Amino acid sequence: PFYADTASVYTIHNLAFQGIFGHRVLEIAGIKAHTKDPDGGSIARRADGTPKGTLREPAAMDLIISCIPARTAKEEVAAIAWASGQMLKSGITFSTDSWVEPGMAALYKSAHESGALQVDMNISHLVTPESWREDSDRILSDRTLFDEIESINASSVKFLADGALSSGTAALLQPYDDQPNFSGITIWSNLRGARFNRYVSKR
Fold first, then answer.
1. How far apart are CA 118 and CA 87, in angstroms?
2. What is the dihedral of CA 13, 21, 171, 136, to 10 degrees?
């Protein structure tokens, strides 16, 4: 019903593991019956293969989110200022951003230097199986941005081994009851994970 009756709105699961999109949004992004599920994500479909409007996991949602014009650095810093201000109003003085992508570390430094960032932060850099080697080199460089900033810790990383139970994509030993041919999504293979661990342990 959501897909059939809604033209262009969308909503994202509060943990960012699932998005529900209107049919016009799917059309703009070019998501059709023949669109393949991206690695690490899935597109909910009807019996004939047409998309229902639900995209699971960031890899699938990025098919649409990548079509949205990127915010400017000024807009991003303003968003950090607003969010950290809301935290302070609730008595929160420390927060974690566990999904820091390329370019975001520099934004946090800019927010700190301008006074826009009003709480202490731990930022965790996202590492993906497709670009883990490049990710690792970038993260090591980004960490040096905060060598002289005590209020921001940038020493941790985040990687997603599989999907999430909240969106019905966690990797299970048995198929899901409502999806008899689906037992979840594995994002990192054991081999890639082992290579990543060996690489970073030597740095």
1. 9
2. -80
The DSSP symbol for 202 reads T
Which residue's entry shows tokens 């941005």?
Answer: 145
Is 187:163 a contact under the CB 8 Å cutoff? yes
Q: Which long-range contacts (CB under 8 A, 24 or more apart) does 26-29 make?
A: 26/51, 26/53, 26/64, 28/64, 28/67, 29/63, 29/64, 29/67
Query: Tell me, what's the pLDDT at 91?
Result: 97
- Answer yes or no: is pLDDT of 203 > 90: no
pTM (predicted TM-score): 0.79
DSSP assignment letter at 19: E
Q: Give whole-number Cα distances, 63 to 52, 80, 148, 163, in Å.
A: 15, 25, 38, 17
Average pLDDT over residues 42-61: 88
The residues, ordered by sequence, that sit 6+ positions from 139 with a Cβ below 8 Å of its Cβ are: 125, 127, 157
- Report the sign of the C-alpha dihedral through residues 97, 100, 104, 108, in that order: positive
> Lowest-pLDDT range, 89-93, 138-142, 176-180?
176-180
Alpha helices in 66-202 (DSSP H): 73-89, 104-114, 132-143, 190-201
Instruction: Provide mean pLDDT across the span 62-86.
Output: 93
pLDDT in tens, 167-181: 788 999 999 887 788
- DSSP of 50-71: -EEEEEESHHHHHHHHTTSPPP
